[in-house]
Design goal:
410 residues, YerB-like fold, 10-stranded mixed beta sheet, 6-stranded antiparallel beta sheet, 24 strands
Length: 410
């Protein structure tokens, strides 16, 4: 069938200009005489509408801050305003005894606080330590921090959170194989951005995240800030990770999590005076000392304050110095992977020498880790497992051939 449209012929009854209604002629005359006024009226209305739009969407309906964003749609984030108050409070009520010991770092909690904590899983965060990524957010809320060299003598942290759930942690960076081996005993949720993908199982973090059944959060819920250049400006949230854990039934503390042994702080008159030590990760790649760690002991607080690259290390959110109750310097074999990317192979399973900084003293120790899923344990010269002070444990892993531990003041 043809789709040709046939126009109807015009008839003699079509109105002529002289036969148009008078009202139409009057409107045309008014429009011609008042064209400027009409344009002014329309323009004013448009400006008013724009002002109302801006007032509602950018003043009244304020967009959320990055640290207030939770929820997800696939790998994207659905903005929603949430309270900045802790969603998972661990504060204890005055007068209620703290009888429950954290298996991560020995801190004591009330039974009520511990019952809440057992309904969530530890979260491990790959944390950037490049000089462009400092100061970091959330380190002073971590229960345990691992510090080890990655490429070009640059160190990276893996911070483990459980007792506290900060809204902002990072900047986050990519995963490496040896961090997976330290992560495995905690069976934690894992926040990271990217991973090393190689044909060598000793460096193939991407493949082993899958083969180890790591509970990957990756970059879900992450965001970038405008105050730093990528890749040093990406952050995530422990609260968001716990919400994601609930969605995947990963919201219970792992029953088989092993614990270290813990003790009370030494009494003041029993504390030592080893006040300052320095940890060099790669003597052959000093980078001007930018990645050398220093620990300064405070006898009054019985804590160690961290310096990095010669500068006092602070938490970006609290503006407080980074501290630890126990510092472990673990010596192991670190070899080049020769993969063209500068990656290293760090031995985590086996045994080696270690130094324990605690109570103002330096303890010569041995570390032992039987398998990937076993927690590293530390023993004194008598073969007895060392009891740590309750509080943040910081573990610096250095090359026994190219790393160095120095007592620089006592």
């Amino acid at each position: 069938m043809s789709d040709k449209i046939v126009e109807e012929p015009k008839t003699e009854t079509s109105p002529t200009p002289s036969s148009k209604p008078k009202s139409t002629s009057k409107f045309k005359t008014w429009l011609t005489n008042n064209k400027g006024l009409l344009f002014l009226t329309i323009g004013s209305a448009a400006i008013s509408a724009g002002a109302l739009f801006y007032l509602y969407f950018y003043v009244i309906k304020v967009p959320p801050l990055p640290s207030q964003i939770i929820g997800k749609i696939g790998n994207f984030v659905e903005p929603s305003l949430v309270s900045l108050a802790p969603v998972y409070p661990t504060a204890t009520v005055p007068g209620v005894p703290r009888t429950e010991e954290s298996p991560l770092n020995g801190v004591l909690f009330t039974k009520e606080a511990m019952s809440k904590m057992l309904k969530r899983r530890p979260v491990a965060v790959m944390t950037n330590n490049h000089i462009a990524g400092r100061p970091q957010s959330g380190l002073n809320d971590a229960d345990i921090v691992y510090e080890a060299v990655t490429e070009s003598g640059i160190t990276r942290y893996m911070s483990i959170f459980w007792s506290e759930g900060p809204n902002k942690v990072g900047p986050i960076r990519s995963s490496r194989q040896y961090f997976l081996e330290w992560l495995s005993p905690f069976d934690a949720l894992y926040i990271y951005d990217g991973c090393a993908s190689t044909s060598d199982p000793r460096t193939n973090a991407c493949g082993n995240i899958y083969s180890y059944s790591i509970k990957s959060v990756a970059t879900r819920g992450a965001w970038r800030t405008n105050d730093r250049l990528a890749p040093h400006n990406e952050y995530s949230s422990i609260l968001n990770a716990w919400e994601y854990g609930k969605e995947n039934n990963w919201d219970e503390f792992p029953e088989k999590t092993e614990s270290w042994k813990f003790k009370r702080d030494a009494k003041f008159d029993e504390r030592g005076t080893k006040t300052k030590v320095k940890v060099t990760f790669r003597q052959d790649m000093t980078n001007g000392g930018d990645y050398d760690s220093e620990w300064i002991y405070n006898r009054n607080t019985n804590m160690y304050t961290h310096k990095i690259g010669g500068q006092t290390d602070i938490d970006l959110e609290s503006k407080k110095s980074i501290t630890a109750k126990t510092v472990i310097v673990e010596e192991t074999t670190v070899t080049d992977a020769f993969d063209g990317k500068g990656r290293v192979i760090t031995t985590t399973i086996g045994q080696g020498n270690a130094k324990i900084l605690m109570d103002g003293k330096i303890i010569n120790a041995k570390w032992k880790k039987s398998s990937r899923s076993d927690r590293t344990r530390y023993y004194n010269s008598s073969g007895e497992e060392i009891e740590f002070n309750r509080g943040r444990v910081w573990i610096s892993v250095i090359s026994k051939e190219k790393g160095k531990f120095d007592i620089i003041e006592q």
